[in-house]
Write a structure and sequence with these properties.
Length: about 270
């Protein structure tokens, strides 16, 4: 692949990789939550966070070294993480296979068929991964989505429900156990705890207006993301260093996304409720 290098392909594959960055995944997730369907957004976020948990764990388990500059051309300097499985490719597999599996419409299915392999190829072209890294990431991402959608549909079909205290207990206990098992994942487990508990409280006490005119949707996104970025910048100054405090920080960020921001939207657009 790298024998076909050109400035155009360099830019093209760099852009393809950019579509699977963690920040963009988070942006898409909050758009789903705030503007389309809170349950859809939460469920996608949980799959994405679990994918991140597994990706980090598998990288540390296999310790696969990345390609070096002596072996291939590297578009960007190595970030110090291991190679297997590819995080960008796994992100793309989770996002597009989830949308394809949820909506079951041709546009989402075609997008999954095109974008997932494209991101995988971009990671090879840019010299960031070996072929096994991207193939494994696709298999893990699609398999995780298939399992999640199967569980979600079984839950919905059988009309399972939990009381509020059960939702709160489960939302705190499961991420906390996963964090204790693997403290390095404090970011994703903390965010999961905050989002699950925030969603449960929001659905019971807030019920923010999801479907509002486009102008107000834009205002929602701007307000929500501005505070989200501010929390990410300011909270490290308020909390000591360490995995437990990082867990707490990201739990607060998750709470903002699923409870704090929706409450602000409800107050701001109460006439649309």
């Amino acid at each position: 692949m790298q024998s076909f290098r050109s400035p155009f392909l360099d830019a093209f594959f760099a852009a393809a990789t950019g579509t699977a960055e963690d920040n963009l995944m988070a942006f898409i997730a909050v758009i789903l939550y705030w503007c389309l369907d809170p349950l859809l957004g939460l469920r996608f976020l949980l799959v994405l966070l679990l994918s991140g948990y597994l990706n980090t764990g598998l990288k540390d388990f296999f310790h696969t070294p990345r390609p070096t500059i002596e072996q291939v051309w590297l578009a960007t300097p190595p970030d110090g993480s291991y190679a297997f499985p590819s995080g960008h490719t796994q992100n793309a597999a989770v996002l597009w296979s989830y949308l394809a599996g949820h909506y079951r419409r041709w546009p989402s299915i075609v997008a999954a068929i095109v974008v997932i392999p494209l991101v995988a190829l971009s990671r090879l072209y840019l010299g960031a991964h070996w072929p096994a890294d991207v193939v494994g990431a696709i298999a893990i991402g699609i398999g995780l989505v298939w399992l999640a959608l199967t569980l979600y549909r079984t839950w919905d079909r059988r009309s399972f429900s939990l009381p509020l205290w059960g939702q709160l207990a489960l939302g705190v206990a499961v991420p906390l156990i996963l964090f204790i098992v693997y403290p390095k994942t404090s970011q994703v487990t903390g965010a999961a705890a905050g989002m699950i508990t925030g969603y449960a409280l929001e659905r019971r006490y807030v019920r923010f207006p999801v479907h509002v005119p486009l102008r107000k949707q834009v205002v929602k996104v701007v307000i929500g993301l501005a505070v989200l970025v501010a929390l990410q910048m300011l909270l490290p100054w308020l909390f000591p260093v360490g995995p437990a405090f990082r867990f707490a920080r990201y739990a607060l960020i998750g709470l903002w996304g699923t409870l704090g921001a929706p409450w602000v939207f409800k107050v701001t657009f109460s006439s649309e409720a």
